[in-house]
Design a protein that fits this description.
- By secondary structure, this protein is of the alpha/beta class.
- The protein contains ten helices and six strands.
- It folds into two domains: about 150 residues, no CATH class; about 140 residues, NAD(P)-binding Rossmann-like Domain (Rossmann fold, 3-Layer(aba) Sandwich).
- A six-stranded parallel β-sheet has the order 3-2-1-4-5-6.
Length: about 325
């Protein structure tokens, strides 16, 4: 639901990988482990019970489609992929599977670019060299984590005016291309909002499914918060249960001694067990109803306000 393209599962995949990595380093305690498992379970439920993921497109496939449509008139177009992250890998695979394009991998650390070149085929160059002496290319796709534009007006001045890149796709947040590219003659710049707007034909259906998904998620959040409230109240209920049992047993002892004197030991034990079950049911059922009512009444509770006994690292 928080993906750049509604229904894309990339964030879920990133969360799952982070969870596994943290577990391998011993950084996941029982509480966080339980929460992560519940989160992954509800993600599967959303996928199973709604159609939000059907026909969904990732940013990589949207960018790949844009490349395919704009470069269809060029035989074996040369495409520069900037960055060595997961997005570049997905784009490289999409390009190799969808149309014949020559790949140039560009990264600050050329070794990482070279790894991608060996994996998908193509060549590699450092970002500094590419910025200083741009190769003759037909398209640039950039997806880095830089906090400022990588491609500025000075880069445009170094391009071969006889063979400008026909298309630049900016998949970075914040942007990798400066405002100089927005209206530069001969170059089409496409950023994330534009990519998304080109594929919003099923947006209404997506929002309907997103509403259903939110209901599933909210129900699970309420259940989780209710469980945490119940955990925090259980010590009180346990103490109350023990006191109630003690009072009940004392009263039953007096009853069996003074009035129900005909009951044998087995029959008396059956009465003790029945009373214990009734007290237990009323005690622990009340805590469940109370926790559910608190969550329902307050809507969204701040998890930080819930006192949870912590016996080990979260």
């Amino acid at each position: 639901l928080e993906s750049l393209v509604i229904g894309e599962t990339q964030i879920t995949g990133q969360f799952k990988q982070a969870y596994y990595d943290a577990g391998n380093y011993g950084l996941v305690g029982s509480t966080l482990d339980y929460l992560a498992q519940r989160a992954l379970l509800v993600a599967r439920n959303v996928k199973r019970k709604t159609s939000i993921g059907r026909g969904s497109l990732s940013m990589a496939s949207l960018a790949g489609d844009a490349l395919l449509s704009r470069l269809s008139d060029i035989q074996n177009p040369i495409i520069a992929l900037i960055g060595a992250g997961p997005m570049s890998s997905k784009l490289a695979k999409y390009i190799k599977d969808s149309f014949r394009g020559k790949l140039l991998f560009v990264n600050r650390t050329v070794n990482k670019a070279a790894e991608l070149a060996r994996k998908f085929g193509g060549s590699a160059v450092s970002l500094d060299k590419f910025l200083q002496s741009p190769a003759k290319i037909d398209a640039i796709v950039s997806a880095t984590s830089s906090d400022k534009p990588i491609f500025a007006g000075s880069f445009l001045e170094k391009l071969d005016k006889k063979r400008l890149p026909k298309l630049c796709i900016d998949l970075a947040i914040p942007r990798d291309f400066s405002a100089d590219f927005d209206s530069f003659p001969g170059i089409e710049l496409i950023d994330i909002p534009q990519l998304k707007s080109h594929h919003q034909g099923n947006l209404r259906e997506k929002f309907i499914e997103a509403g259903r998904a939110n209901e599933i998620i909210q129900e699970e959040v309420n259940r989780y918060l209710s469980d945490q409230i119940e955990i925090s109240l259980k010590p009180i209920i346990n103490e109350s249960f023990r006191e109630s049992i003690a009072i009940a047993n004392k009263a039953l002892d007096k009853l069996f001694t003074n009035k129900l004197t005909t009951l044998d030991k087995k029959q008396q034990d059956a009465v003790y067990q029945l009373v214990s079950k009734l007290i237990g049911h009323s005690s622990f059922q009340s805590i469940r109803l109370l926790s559910e009512h608190m969550v329902e009444a307050q809507g969204r509770l701040d998890p930080d306000s819930i006192s949870i006994p912590k016996k080990q690292a979260v």
